[in-house]
Design goal:
heterodimer, A: 276 residues, alpha/beta, Glutaconate Coenzyme A-transferase, three-stranded antiparallel sheet, 11 helices, 32% helix, B: 241 residues, six-stranded mixed sheet, 13 strands
């Protein structure tokens, strides 16, 4: 019997050291907001965030709170709520380094890590300033066909994957359903930290209808239960985005002082309280 | 008062541009293209497949975020939508920022999938409501994705049309130039010339964009509005107002 990966939220967040490379999913795939609050509480510094493939509220908060040295991403946006105010301000004030990418490049670079290979080719990109400014990408000639330049991307192997999922079992298996980029992410990362809406007593691997959407415990380092763990963001079909809460953030975060006030309230609260 | 809104005009223009497509996908922050795609599907009698990023109900992907890009590279997507904080006369788009990169004066979200999809999807429709000299510039400050490429670059896709708040443009990939095809109701050629920072081709008696008609408006204000609300609740709330 293996030691259980189940732990408290604060213990899960304590595993991420200063300077770690942390990969996180986009807002439709399960963002670990409750765990993010723990990271902000701990004042983790110098993180290298990888957005898979774009970031939103979570990234904006972490940048605003000073946790981030580098953000590698295809975009940072609050979606229908507009531009990400703390990201935008930090870029303007040169407080964060942005490695601009494009969505399929981040997916492909994680797939390279998943395969244990050093790099992977990708179409497109030639003639873009994304390629011209990227520190690592190269163009080669297709070795199998003349006059066909193609871009190579080095693998991205994050120190940590961090995301929120619907359910895990006591063996450490995590159900992610259709969000298969989370499976790739877990395969690619050295350690995978997951918060879940609930811990089930059943074995997720026993039901063939569920097991196709499961990340096996093999890849999972730690799991913490966090009810409403993606709040105030949408979480699949379980709960919609809390428009009032995100709306308050957007107004507050227009200024540094407003953001700091918002941050103080957020750190003092729990999702359940905020929802009440 | 007209019996339709400017947004309804844009949606109906896009619906026409999707005729003959088998599979249309809409990306991030694309409520108007998403609404148009759902409407086009309804009008196609179910022959058009639509996938909307950000939707659960209108999204049939089961291989994660990478599936859209794999589909595009295989030629399985006929139309996609891109936009730009800046767009220039060669259909180069900039989604990163205004000013000299990386020390941009204004930072926008980022390039998303544009640096890839612009090369691979046959009908890329550029969509930007704001049609001003701030957006329609002589030359973009940062190329998120180029409008045209040298012949040896693998590029089955590229710009097909551009829809703005003022008019509809075609794009000639050989010439690397836009051509104004129609001016939306309530606007004029002079207004478009005044608000465009690059040269484009046009006829002095350019036609007016046909306005949306009965069935289109009816669907848009009922079932389609309800359908898009799942992915874009804030947009659906103002649609038709």
């Amino acid at each position: 019997m293996l030691a259980t990966p189940l732990c408290e939220l604060s213990s899960l967040a304590a595993m991420i050291p200063h300077g770690a490379m942390v990969a996180v999913p986009s807002e439709n795939a399960g963002v670990a907001m409750a765990a993010t609050r723990e990271l902000v509480r701990r004042a983790v510094r110098d993180l290298h965030l990888v957005c898979v493939p774009v970031g939103g509220l979570q990234i904006d908060i972490m940048i605003g709170a000073g946790l981030v040295a580098t953000v590698e991403t295809s975009a940072v946006t609050l979606g229908e709520f507009g531009s990400a105010p703390r990201f935008t301000a930090a870029v303007r004030e040169k407080r964060v380094r942005v490695v601009d990418a494009t969505c399929p490049a981040i997916h492909a670079a994680l797939q390279a890590a998943q395969k244990g290979i050093p790099f992977i080719p990708l179409r497109g990109l030639i003639g873009t300033d994304v390629l011209a400014n990227h520190p690592d990408w190269k163009v080669i000639e297709n070795p199998f066909q003349a006059d066909d330049p193609i871009v190579l991307l080095p693998a991205i192997r994050p120190d940590f994957a961090l995301f929120h999922a619907p359910v895990a079992d006591r063996n450490g298996n995590v159900f992610v359903g259709r969000w298969r980029e989370l499976l790739t992410l877990a395969h690619a990362a050295r350690r995978t930290l997951v918060t879940v809406e609930e811990i089930t007593e059943r074995d997720l691997m026993e039901d063939p209808q569920l097991s196709v959407g499961v990340i096996p415990a093999l890849y999972v380092t730690a799991i913490a239960e966090a009810r409403y763990g993606a709040w105030p963001l949408r979480f699949g079909d379980q709960y919609p985005i809390d428009q009032a809460a995100v709306g308050r953030y957007v107004v507050a975060a227009r200024t540094e002082a407003g953001f700091q006030d918002w941050l103080r309230d957020w750190l003092a609260s729990h999702a359940a309280q905020m929802l009440a | 008062m007209t019996p339709y809104t400017p947004i309804e005009v844009l949606i109906s223009v896009i619906v026409r541009l999707l005729e003959g497509c088998r599979h249309v996908v809409t990306g991030a922050a694309s409520p108007i293209p998403g609404t148009a795609a759902l409407l086009a599907r309804e009008l196609s009698g179910g022959t058009l497949r639509v996938n909307i990023l950000g939707s659960t109900r209108n999204n049939s992907f089961t291989n994660g975020g990478v599936e859209l890009f794999d589909l595009a590279a295989q030629g399985r997507i006929d139309a996609f939508f891109l936009s730009g904080g800046q767009i220039d006369g060669q259909a180069n788009i900039n989604l990163v920022g205004a000013g000299v990169y990386p020390d941009v004066d204004v930072r926008w979200p980022g390039s998303f999938g544009s640096s890839y999809l612009y090369f691979l999807v046959p009908r890329v429709i550029l969509f930007r409501e704001e049609h001003t000299r701030r957006v329609m510039v002589p030359k973009v400050d940062f190329v998120s994705a180029p409008g045209i490429s040298p012949t040896h670059t693998y590029r089955p896709g590229g710009p097909y049309k551009m829809v703005t708040g003022l008019g509809l443009f075609g794009f000639d990939r050989t010439l690397g130039r836009f051509r104004l095809e129609s001016v939306h109701p309530g606007h004029s050629l002079e207004e478009i010339l005044d608000n465009t920072g690059f040269e484009f081709d046009y006829e002095p008696d350019v036609s007016i964009t046909p306005p949306p008609e009965g069935r289109v408006l009816e669907l848009l204000r009922s079932s389609i509005r309800a359908e898009i609300a799942e992915a874009y609740p804030r947009f659906a709330a103002v649609l038709g107002n």
